[in-house]
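S.,

Sequence below, as promised.
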Amino acid sequence: MISNQSPQALNDTVVANGYCVGCGACAVPEQSPFKIVMDDYGQYQSTLKDPSVFATTQNDYEKLCPFGSGAPNEDEIANQHFSESCEHNNQVGYYNGVFAGHVTEGKFREQGSSGGMGTWVLNELLEKRLVDYVVHVKSEKADQDLSNIPFKYQVSETLEETQQGGKSRYYPIELSEVLKIIRSQPGRYAIVGLPCFIKSVRLLQAQDPILAERIQYCVGLVCGHLKSAHYAQSLAWQMGIAPQEFESIDFRVKDPAQPANRYSTYAKGSYGEKVVPTNQLIGTDWGAGAFKYKACDFCDDVFAETADVVLGDAWLPEYVQDSHGTNVVVTRNQHIRQLIVNARTEGRLEMDDLGVEKAVQSQDAGLRHRKVAIGYRLYCEKISGTWVPTKRADPANKLKPRYEMKRQRLRTELRSLSHKSFLSAKRNGDITSYLDALKPVYSRYSSQGRSFFRRVLSFGKRKIKGCFQF
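The prediction came back faster than expected:
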């Protein structure tokens, strides 16, 4: 029997120290002592509900959590699934195909945030009868207004249903409810998720034979980090829609006159709706990390390395000028790779063979933050005397260039300050206090970035390469 202390151990390490990402994996087992709640900062978090359950539990909860002690890391999980049929890259993980492109058939691209490949893959799995259901994030109301909130995982089985999940949702979600549906409803499923969520699914499959049998495909999303619910509210409030009036949001409205990375934000309130270029709103600089979960700063997986296929934006010079959006796609499952190759031959997809180094380049900033700078963040946590999760990177007390360490500290400050100052602003009914708190720290962070590029330019071509490989 597995030690009945594991729920308390998980609570005292991951949850108590702020590393819970709210995925919900620990709440899935029958008689689980955990439940998922949304905290005051708009983040889903795990909490113990009934210590008396401990005596009967058979699950090792520390090995269900993506940040838990003793859980296998992404390399170990991926090796079990993909090592025999794929090559490996230390930034991307395993791969048997790397593509960039978009969907040319139907309205997949038009209705998606990027090239339409996310919804297309799910629909293709349904059309080819490789799965019976897909599990993805949609509006809870599940109607034709794709921007209604809150968002949650739901089960779809038709093209019409899957297309309701075809937009980016920078909003907290959790898996426990929908995974319980999978366990109770026989069938073959494909599930979509962020890297840590897909890792959670793999960890659950290792302990739950029913989920292992029924979840046939894991579709991953390239990830920068997960936002709290207050991120959406902060954007709408800056647009004149207060939290109590806030009804819906679309985080990425394409603008045909702008490059793909110059999108707008749409928000709807009780008394009207607004569309504003996203870069005009405070807190939308993804690198700064406002409203980020703390756990995301201690995740080193960008390309959802345990998923059968992963999709993201092709942030590359040759694609970014196309306002309609272009996906980068990394396949690890041969069935999915063949679906893409066949559809390209049939003219239903426009897909280039990208190459793994180009895929790395497409997510350069995120990989440097998550794969390299994580060592410094681990070091900073460790010297504070708190528990830290075991990651593939070791704690490191230095970064190159040296001023990157200050940028990392400012990002941590912005993350924490955004949560606290916005909660205070909501309670006081005045967004000005949030903006006034964030602006000076963000200004210092931005000036570090400008200083960085000035230094790069002054070093000349010979030194530029080294500066970017810190």
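The chain has four domains: 6-63, 74-227+289-366, 229-279, 375-468.

Coffee later?
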